[in-house]
Structure formats: C-alpha cells, structure tokens
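[Meeting: bench + compute handoff]

Bench side (C.D.) handed over the final construct sequence. Compute side (W.E.) agreed to return the predicted structure before the next meeting so the bench team could plan truncations. Sequence as handed over:
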Amino acid sequence: VYEARKIIVNDDDGNWIATVDIVPISRENGQGKYKVELESGTYLVDINRIGIDSSGDVPTQVEIRSGETTTLNIDIDTGIR
C-alpha cells in the first residue's frame, strides 16, 4: 500500500529539497518507514496524496538541529476499508 506514497521535503521558502520513498517494514500491519538526511534548518514535510489519501500529521514544519535525530511519525489514511 505504501510503496506508491512519497514523503515530500521543501525548505522554509517552499523550494523542493527531496522526495523520499516509504519502505514497507511489515506487510501484515501495513506500516512503512522512511529516512532522509538533511542539513540543519527548518523544513516543510508533506506527502504526495493519491486518490483520497489524507493525513492530519502533515503538512508540518520540522526543525532539524546538527548532531540530533529528529523523528516525524505520519499516519496516512488511505481510505481503504
């Protein structure tokens, strides 16, 4: 389910920085994982929406600090019932 979805990262000015694949970690529970390395700064993180996908977690602004790991969990409702 998540293979077609992407994480979109833009800088604070709205310029595209990266598009990141969501990698499935379990086919049984439909969860996925993503990782992106960024320089220190403020970024806007979103998903590419496919069909009726939605998430209350994004878009969101994320502050990245040097030498720290930042975690952003994103729940994606695919609309599949």
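W.E. noted at the follow-up: The chain has one domain: 2-64. C.D. will use this when planning the next construct.
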